[in-house]
Amino acid sequence: LITTASSICVGLTTVIAIRLIANRTSVQLMGAFLLARQIITLAMPISTISMGLTLARYIPLSKTKEETSRVVLAGTVLGLLPGAILLVIGNLFPTYFSRSIYSSTEYGPLVVAMFIALNGNALVTILYAIYRGNSQMHRANIMQMSLPGIGQLTVAILLAHTGNVTLILTATGIIYALA
After folding, report:
1. Is this prediction's pTM over 0.90?
2. Cβ-contact 103, 56 below 8 angstroms
3. Which pLDDT band holds residue 52 (cuts at 50, 70, 90)?
4. According to the model, what pLDDT value does residue 48 have?
5. Taking Cα atoms as reference points, which of 51, 129, 46, 55 lies closest to residue 85?
6. CA 86 vs CA 71, 92, 137, 160, 177: distances in Å
7. Which of 12, 79, 93, 111 is the most buried (most CB within 10 A)?
8. pLDDT (tens digit, 9 = 90+) per residue, 13-38?
9. Closest among 113, 83, 102, 88 to 175, alpha carbons compared
10. Is it the case that residue 105 has pLDDT exceeding 90?
11. Under 8 Å between Cβ of 15 and 149
């Protein structure tokens, strides 16, 4: 029940945050922002190599603390490495990605912000899986409500007035990375 409530909290704060941002940006920038967020959603299972599911399943199967530590370390590295590689590539070739995604080179900074946010999301996913695998759902739910939930809403409240979707997406990724 609490996990469902925390998911609803994140969903509601996402809708409110997007609404705040939409009120302060142009239709074109909002479309670019939402496309970046959708790409993040699509890339998450690929970029984390589904370690969110794997860690949550294999941690409970570990027989010793040392084995659990090895599972957590391996899963964390595997879950974060692809996103880190994408962040480096995105920083090296933002114009290419911008042209490929938006048919324009003007969104290079938003592409970099997208990869920052992807990495922040990956960190939250891995941490949630570790908590879940260790039967610490109360911590997982608190983390989910505070960072992806309240964190993104706070970013929107503080930065929506700028209309700068690149700044907003970057700040959201950084807030997630604080997990």
Report:
1. yes
2. no
3. confident
4. 83
5. 46
6. 23, 10, 30, 27, 16
7. 111
8. 999 999 999 999 999 999 999 999 99
9. 113
10. yes
11. no
